[in-house]
Amino acid sequence: MFGSRRELRKMQWGIARRASLRISAISALIASGMALAAPADGGFVGGPKGPAPWTKAPSAEPQTLRFAVIGDRTGLARPGVFEQAIKQVDLLQPEFLINVGDLIEGYTGDTAELAREWGEMESAIGQLRAPFFYVAGNHDIGNDLMLNAWKAKRGEPYYQFVYKDVLFLVLDTEDPPRDMPSAFAKQFHQMAAGMKTDPVATEKALAQFLGGVNADRAKGNPTDPEMAALSLARFSPKQVDFALKAIADHPQVRWTFVLMHKPAWKLKSAEFAKIEAALGGRPYTVIAGHNHYYTHEQRNGRDYITMGTAGAISHEHGTGEMDHIAWVTLRDAAPDIALIKLNGLLDRTGTSGQTLAR
Prior knowledge:
Blueprint: H1 2-32, E1 65-70, H2 81-92, E2 97-99, H3 111-125, E3 132-133, H4 144-154, E4 159-163, E5 166-170, H5 182-197, H6 199-218, H7 225-230, H8 237-249, E6 255-259, H9 270-279, E7 284-288, E8 295-299, E9 302-306, E10 324-330, E11 336-341
Parallel strand pairs: 1-2, 2-3, 5-6, 6-7, 7-9
Antiparallel strand pairs: 1-10, 4-5, 8-9, 10-11
């Protein structure tokens, strides 16, 4: 009996001692101004009561929006650039990634070839953990067969969504689609095949061809009417009505992003002019692709951006010739837009994996 009481007192003393040590430790933390546990909202906790070794404490910003935009992979893709770009963007973990069109070479009436091309892209995009939003380009829906395939898998090529009180209006500049002239399509597919086997030589030959085309334009020589029609931005009355309604239905959103493939504001589109007018005085940004060359301009006091490439061949040379993403951050005021070149976006090993990116 005596032994049991002695053991009991020893155990009680040990418990009291440990409790005392815990209370002393907690008291020391409180005295030093340190917090005991992180708050439920994930906000910043810690630090002394006096001077702190930081400029200001970070704060939770649930309304801050961070997403990425990526440009054209085609027409005429440099092998592997876009596929590697998806892996690189995934390192940044945006809330979502949106492409401005031209993911496949397209312009085909072969359903098996179309399925193969989209299968390659979906496999690459599937490596991205964040959501991926599609925007239709002329190479993606270049004819009615391609349009129907798009609709069967992704619905209408123009759509809208609201996220974090921001309206995203995605337009279809190929409404209705227009196919390539047959002679040009044959030449185009030959070059697309060449890009897979010898991209450097094929791009060099294409550059010489485009140099001649640009020289003819500079001299004022007439452009082939079929090719001129192919380059226009087209919006059906139904799409215009949809866009006007989407804008009218969301008058108080804190920002509006308008995304499309062809930069319709550069192409004298009367239909886009109606949409632009409806945007009025609201805060908005317009982003397009297609030209394979980065440009930024101000219209109506707003940013209008044409993305550079994400693997597509270049159409001209200069400062806008680059493979890149646009990283968009929206807090309370206008969005910050940072361009990140793919050959400068490295993983933890210090490499980009980009051999043909520029």
